[in-house]
Design a protein that fits this description.
alpha/beta; Glutaredoxin; seven-stranded mixed β-sheet; four-stranded mixed β-sheet; 40% helix; 18% strand; globular
């Protein structure tokens, strides 16, 4: 009997213990559901709000409302978007947490013909049509007081830029007035009709970089023949200036000395000018032009090279065919190190420049020069005509300069005027020989900056062109722009920094860094140089053989011109034999190239697959041996 009681008591206590554990688990789970706690283990802390976002939220003076429209029905939301919407909602909850009462989050599930659907439409968020004819909604609108901003591109492809897009919308909605950015250029960066004489031509949209700048600035077009720049222009962006009138250069000079900030993009060989000229659009041959502002550069102690830089360590290559060759004048900078530690370069990892020039010289005293981007030591400045030659021809004459050429240069400090004698004399329009007397305002002409200012110089214009920085795809019936490098981020960073906007710069630069297979890239570079040398040898053999054939041909009689002599036949056979030998060597090089890649990949695969299990086994053996030794000692 006592045995039965003990048995029942034992199992009753066990059952009670199990029920208590379940009850505690349920209670803990219910409590933790209300706690939004997590730990970000990613190297770049991609899932944690950046300090820039926290700074902007802290400076908010009025509450900001975020309206999140999301179709929550499983039948309405596509399967591929459900995980993304969960991540998005988690991000919005974190904004509320960090905002400390300044961020209000309203969540809506738009249903057909409902007030919520009407509200989404008023916020500029339209439903996307599914194959079965139903609509699903996924979008965000941010409002502060009477200003509403729609968050662009709420899609998985843009999730690396989600925080930036969200914080920018919050920042814009809370600002009563955006800073003014002026753009001075003859290139059609603002879009419109590039061929006015063709009235039926559809107007072209602004370049993507201008569209992006408009999200943070009030962008004004400044004529290239202006004689005055308003003081309300926070930053002046000058693109591809060609033979500016002295009065215009003087206006730029005085704008800088009065406290303005300049960004100047120059180019020794501008493809964007060539491709956007009306003549080229009509099929005419147009050569790319060059640009500079020598008067200002000379006053700052800097000059711009009219030659094009080639860089063997940073040459672009055909990613689909590594054996196709490199493009020495097309620069491809990957995993850029911020050598200057300048905020404008923070997070900038990949840049492309095309037929870029270089800045040389040492600035005058009082001006601090900071190089933001430079070439490798294996670079050289060559004539723009030679830069268009095949890579093998460039490689043949290539002699590295052994110095880093400056591609992006930042000047800061107190600048001196390029016009010490005051405003330049203006020529009379009707009689060029007669010059208008200098105005009395010359006495008020600024000779030096009253306070420190800054100028950023870019050695390339093409890097701002759409075709060299973004790809465009059609998704759900609309064009989605996807950057394939950091060219857009760079120009936004520079303009934002000069306008005093460092918080948004910090957020914009947060993204997944490119991590190329360094060993494979090294093998490809070495193999490419071998291929190009062999190809160059074959070309030289061809030219030498052709020269010998021509020499033999000139020594023949008129009636024998079309008949091959035995010497010519023998020379032709020798040439074919040498070409066959070189092609065989190329084939062996390709085979060895593939073997090197396969060996490298196999080595890393073995390391990735086997190292951890081997370490676990070794650790287990060590523990086993340790326990056996300790057990034997006890005996």
């Amino acid at each position: 009997m006592s045995f039965i009681k003990a048995f029942i008591k034992k199992y009753i206590y066990s059952a009670i213990g199990i029920l208590l554990i379940i009850a505690v688990a349920v209670a803990v789970n219910a409590l933790l559901r209300k706690v939004n706690a997590r730990y970000d283990l990613t190297e770049d802390k991609l899932y944690t709000l950046s300090q820039g976002t926290k700074n902007i939220l802290e400076k908010l003076k009025s509450p900001v409302t975020i309206r999140f429209y999301c179709s929550r029905s499983e039948n309405q939301m596509p399967v591929q978007l459900r995980g993304f919407t969960a991540r998005l909602e988690d991000l919005l909850d974190e904004y509320v947490s960090v905002g400390r009462g300044k961020i209000i989050l309203d969540k809506f599930d738009p249903q057909p013909d409902s007030e919520t659907e009407y509200s989404a439409s008023m916020d500029g968020i339209n439903g996307e049509m599914m194959p079965d004819g139903r609509k699903f909604y996924l979008g965000i609108a941010v409002s502060c007081l009477d200003k509403t901003i729609k968050v662009p591109d709420v899609t998985p492809s843009e999730q690396n830029q989600l925080e930036y897009n969200m914080t920018r919308a919050i920042y814009e909605s809370s600002q009563s007035k955006m800073p003014v950015l002026g753009i001075m250029t003859d290139l059609p960066v603002a879009g419109g009709n590039t061929m006015p004489f063709m009235k039926k031509q559809a107007p072209k949209p602004p370049w993507i970089f201008v569209q992006e700048l408009k999200k943070n600035f009030t962008v004004n077009q400044i004529p290239t023949k202006t004689t005055q720049i308003d003081n309300d222009v926070k930053v002046l962006l000058i693109i591809h200036p060609q033979k500016l009138a002295p009065e215009t250069v003087y206006a730029i000079d005085q704008y800088l000395l009065s406290g303005g900030r300049l960004v100047i993009a120059l180019d020794p060989f501008c493809l964007a000018e060539q491709r956007n000229s009306p003549q080229a659009m009509m099929g005419q041959q147009v050569m790319p032009g060059s640009s500079s502002i020598p008067e200002l550069l000379k006053a700052w102690g800097i000059s711009f090279s009219g030659d094009v830089i080639v860089d063997m360590d940073n040459s672009a290559r055909n990613v689909n065919d590594p054996q196709a060759g490199t493009y020495p004048a097309v620069l491809d900078f990957i995993n850029i190190k911020n050598i200057s530690e300048d905020p404008a370069m923070a997070g900038i990892a990949h840049l492309n420049l095309l037929y870029a020039g270089a800045f040389v010289g040492t600035p005058d005293s009082g001006i601090l020069a900071k190089t933001l981007l430079e070439s490798s030591l294996k670079s050289q400045l060559i004539n723009s005509f030679k830069a268009q030659s095949p890579s093998a021809a460039i490689l043949k004459e290539f002699v590295p300069s052994g110095k880093n050429e400056k591609l992006i240069l930042k000047l800061a400090g107190k600048f001196k005027t390029a016009f010490p004698d005051g405003k330049p004399l203006k020529k009379d329009d009707k009689n060029p020989e007669v010059k208008t007397p200098p105005p009395a305002e010359n006495e008020k002409s600024l000779k030096e900056s009253a306070k420190e200012s800054a100028v950023v110089l870019l050695a390339d214009v093409d890097m701002l062109s759409d075709e060299f920085c973004v790809s465009k795809q059609n998704v759900f019936g609309r064009t989605v722009v996807q950057p394939f490098n950091d060219n857009l981020n760079l120009i936004q960073n520079i303009c934002g920094q000069l306008a005093g906007d460092n918080d948004l710069i910090q957020i914009r630069c947060r993204k997944v860094r490119e991590r190329p297979f360094v060993e494979l890239v090294k093998i490809q570079n070495e193999a490419q140089q071998k291929f190009e040398k062999k190809i160059l040898e074959i070309e030289e053999e061809k030219q030498s053989a052709q020269a010998r054939l021509n020499q033999l041909q000139t020594g023949k009689a008129e009636n024998q011109k079309f008949i091959m002599t035995p010497e010519q036949k023998q020379e032709l056979e020798n040439f074919k034999k040498k070409v066959a030998e070189k092609n065989k060597e190329l084939k062996e090089l390709r085979k060895e190239f593939r073997k090197d890649i396969e060996r490298t990949i196999f080595r890393y695969e073995v390391a990735n697959i086997a190292v951890v299990p081997v370490l676990v086994i070794l650790f287990g053996l060590c523990v086993y041996v340790f326990n056996r030794v300790r057990s034997n000692r006890r005996k």
